[in-house]
Amino acid sequence: MRLNKLREKLAADGLDAMLVTRPQNMRYLSGFSGGDGAVLVVTQQAAVAVTGFIYREQMQREAPDWELVEAKGRLFHALPEVTARLGVRRIGFESTYLTVDQHHDLAEALPDCQLVPVKGMVEELRAVKSEEEIEAITRAIVLADSAFAHIVKFIRPGMKEREVGWELEKYMRSHGADKVSFDIIVGSGPNGAMPHATQSERVIRAGEPIVMDLGAVVDGYCSDLTRTIVIGEPDDTFRTVYDTVLRAQVHAEAKIMPGMTGEEADGIAREIIVEAGYGEAFGHGLGHGVGLAVHESPRVSYMQGENVLQPGMVFTVEPGIYLPGWGGVRIEDIVVLREDGCQVLTKASKEPFVPL
Ligand code: ZN
Ligand code: ZN
Questions:
Q1: pTM over 0.85
Q2: Could you tell me the distance, in angstroms and rounded to a whole number, from the CA of residue 135 to the centre of ligand 1?
């Protein structure tokens, strides 16, 4: 099914073959989970996996339907035999995932082929999820949700950001995560004003905002969750800012519909934050697709967000306000777009007030 869709795209672009090198794309098409330990060649008739000794056994198990070609040296050096045998002339490559050196090697290995740069071909297929994929993502979401519920009971003033981050990671790993989907963020007080601060030695205090952004990987699929809390009494800024971010998020989740562009979806939340006077403090897009990668298509953003949102797409809705010197508030859910709007998959509490 996935291969058929890719083959339609190959035909439309006049390509004899596609060389797939991005790990998540290889996993999506073949099931192979060995990262960059292989390359795939797909033509209208053939599906060939080129790998070496180290991944041979794994490839046979994970991609039994693929023709396995074992490379004795570098993977690209096994390609001339494959392209000659399959009669490939025009071959697409993933231009975003090939280094200059790799492109050089590829051109040397395939002097008789025309190498055509291709952007986002498999990524576009990945953007619309099957129900099985949505189930895997949901399992990853449940883990992050319960890690957050756990941390609210665990976190105390006087703890370092790193202790809290490690507790979140330990919780997810010991409850079934393959790994964490990115470096967990615990941004307390002024650190929270940096949207992608990770964790520091800073000691958490009562009364300040604490931004926590975490995710798990389950069966290859990622989750992504942000919540902001305050332990004890917050200041007035926190109440206003939190209320604004939450209103923007809830409004967007209620209004985003199939057929909108990512940019239009972003605008629904942004309008509320701009009206509240915090437009300058919301400097990132509203959301991003989530799947085998924690950041993937579609873009739900005022930047390059012209992609049209379709049923089956899974993406985050994560407005935020960041005030240098004070801190930040971000609230992030994952939704799946259905015919009639967003189904919110994230269930973690949005109650920000944690008693001292
Ligand atoms: Zn996140
Ligand atoms: Zn995110």
A1: yes
A2: 19
